[in-house]
Amino acid sequence: MADEPLIDKIHDLSDLELATLICLVAQEHCIIDTEPDSIDDLVLELELVAAKVFGLSHAVIDCSEHTSLDDFAYSILSAEGSPARSTSPVRTRADSYFLNAPTFQSIAARSPVSENFADNKSIANVIIAKNLDEAPKQVQIQALELMRTKRIYTRTSVQSAPKRFLFIALLAGGEGPRLTKHLNDQMFISHFHDPEDGFPNLEEKYDDGSSISSVVKKSPIVPEPYLLPRISAMDIEHLSQLSEYTTVTVELSEYQQDIIAFLRLHRAVAGGISATATRNFDKLSKCLAPLHDLSYATPSLVALAARKIYPHRIHIVQPEKERSMQWGSDVDAVAAELDGIGAEDVIEDVLGSAGAETPL
């Protein structure tokens, strides 16, 4: 189990800091959702979380329908690093990503960025992709490849992601899947941050009484070298090792499988309970145990894992495609039954008394 000082530090973390820690421990990526009016404050808060709490470099990508592959590639190369492998034999593959068409016009052609821009840069530890769901499909595919291979190809080089690497898709408003199918399924967890829960790091930084929303960020937020991060690389590695040895009993494994079966059979679910989600469900259940100073998973941790793994994956069925329509149900009655049901409602149904039986 983790030592007491580390557990105390974990208990003092905010919801955003804890979500970041879970992903770093699991070496996975996440979706963070909030209200549209608070997304800019949330970007600043996540920058401070990366810099102050974990001592990690970060990059922010402000996505829109006009974001190109070049915009994406150059935006994430924000941290100073060693020269890229510009002589790599796989360099020719980059040409297929950057077509000489107006749609993929490089930011280098529109700004004084040199062709050797990437040569003295490296991929940031934490990438915050604001409004990633608004980016074109080819940009989302590029993000997916970066997460899977931990590499990205620019015009002149191949860049590799650092060992501690986290990609955060920052979305605003909405429920259920909003990214492309495979990118959405690649996201480990999803978390909704209620603005009423505050932005503690941002409020601490600007505690002079000025409005947070009116703050103009004049320079990037960077880790201060004389301040040690609250959660160190050794802490994360230790928690990661502990999660690998978390005990999951046969009864608890059956409970996990029952939850998955009930989700797949729920009348409101059209899809989203994938094999990837199942693997992530098991992984998160194990990762949560050491954060609670346990060497074994419990039913409550499994339920918590389900609430984080599935909300962004579940597709709610259209009334005309609901399975009871095969036996003559009235479409208006089905529509009334499904009205207002979201992914979280489905999960609570399955975890409630009418769903999977909790092991004693």
From TrEMBL:
Name used for this protein in its record: Magnesium chelatase
Gene3D superfamilies: Magnesium chelatase subunit I, C-Terminal domain (1.10.8.80)
Domain of life: Eukaryota
